[in-house]
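[INFO] parsing input record for Alpha/beta hydrolase domain-containing protein
[DEBUG] input buffer:
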Amino acid sequence: MAGMYPGRAVSKGLIFLSLCPTAEAKVVRIVMDEQKDGSEARRNVPADYRVLKGLAYGELDPHDPHNRIITDIDLAEKNSRGMLEYTATFTLYVPLHPAPKTVLLYDVVNRGGAAMPREYANGDYFLISGWQADIAFGGRAISGGPGETVKVPVARGVTGAAVARFYDLHQGKKTLALAQSATYISSGVPPVPADLDTGHAHLVTKQYEDSDGATSGVAEIPQSDWAWGDCERTSFPGKADATKICLKNGADASLLYELRYTAKDPQVLGVGFAAMRDVNTFFRYEKQDSEGTLNPVYGHVRSAISTGVSQSGNTLRSMVNLGFNEDEQGRRVWDGVMPIIAARQTPENVRFGVPGGTSMVYDVGTDGVNWWTHATDPVRGNPAEGLLDRCTAAKNCPKIVELLGSAEFYSLRASMAFVGTSATRDLPLPLNVRRYYVNSTTHGGGGGGFNLHQHEANNCVLETNPNPEGPTRRALLLALKQWVVDGTLPPASVYPTLAEGTLAPASKVMASFPHIPGEPMPVLNPNLIYALGPDFHANDLSGVVQTRPQPVIGVAKGVLPTLDADGNEIGGLHTALRDAPLGTYVGWNVVTSGFRKGQFCALTGGYIPFAATAEERKTKHDPRPSIEERYGTHAQYVERVRATAMKQARERLLLQDDAEKMIAEAEASTVLR
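[DEBUG] output buffer:
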């Protein structure tokens, strides 16, 4: 990879730089308009907020050490002043009546999309902006709403390995669009091929592929039987098209198709991290832009906090790891960060990276440090490092509140964050980090409530897991704000450990799951080890992947939270629904049909309800006691919920109004009526 790639020791120089004049690569100009009633941006926004949408035009100095870590920065297009330019969309929510001790709360958008939940409508300033350049500029977010995106430079003439994978296709389908492949469906802007010669690419099919990369029935489609083109309306080879391929004989729905090709002109995706950094520090610190446009936040905020959910939480972890919590003038970006249901890093700073990947086979993201403390990596042989090494050296680490649950272990390989790659000891948390593990939850938590049955998850065997995380998240966001603004310590961390026996080897935990007639046993996404090549810097999840798909060279051991006799997890934080369970709540699920049938249903947790009565339990041969046997009466069940909810409210793990809502829902439920 061209250009200097700083190690962790180099970042110590940032302390000196913060005291010296530097070139001011920054947000140069902002353009914004107020959104009126009826606009998409005003949907679900309180009336006492103004909504400003706009564009932030910025520049980066490629020679500044704060930016040197950006992959391909030396090869990127530059303006006449030798600077890299970017344009980021943003949306700013401005309170008409700012609260005392107001903060600027930045929410990292997930694949371009964001919504304003009620916990933000509290008198604080709320900001979102684009950072993921492989989402079409001016297009829609993956969620369907208007997308927050960023334009970044490209590295002209640079080439590298790329792959697009397709499965669960319609029988006989002729044209496959790269943007609709399993690889790029979460981005929409796949890498373009270096040329349209099929002799310079390979299209292979697989009859089977396991989650550990093991395959069978692999065959290559002859170059004469496919083409770069669109043949929806034109016979083979179709109309030439660098974004699609045409299959002469149509697709076989039972197969996986894997297109391996050489791509060109990569977007310098890592600029998105710098754009996020600079947009935040502009609104936090600057009075106006270079043309005199006033910053509506200036002078109003004391502190800045960032939150991110799933992919966005991974992005926060990468931002801190790569040193982007400090701008070029040495100013701190965020005083507090809250990664939610995040267990890895985001492959944003990778040539031809796929920031929207979901930790499926061949998705990079868990290949380097995934732990907050400084620790060794004996299994993969990476240098001993930690996510906080750079900010510790620069003395600008934020306060961190981390929230995650069961699906992050089963789908997102969270084991390494808790016990490293050797999986033999608990990794300690630094003093500025709090971790809260909501056990027995799906990715992001379920909808709550106290209903015996739930709807089926999409193409998954088990019903959806209703065990909620949202109420816990609301309480912890307030706790983070109090920690940042007032110095009030948040509740003590709550998570499972090897020392307490609430974590154990994954194989042992999975074997301990109760055998429930007619229900599946647990499935797990393994901790894969890849051969990524000499130009990939694993601990920073940065650089160039040499071969795609990269070879799988091993599987690291992992742990899982231990289970009780019902199959519910023991350690961590128990919600009121988990403390008064109506069934078994799990962080895994099983694919019902298609190419991946029988494997883990990505990011999806499941639910297996208890029998209502002892008679039903005996008829079904269910080893778990029935609801009737557990609680006796409706009143006793409600009292169990009440005790848990009120205890957590006293401990600041639940807001009082959420506790009261849960109790009311339990009272209104049909449990044991």
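[INFO] The radius of gyration is 25 Å.
[INFO] shutting down worker
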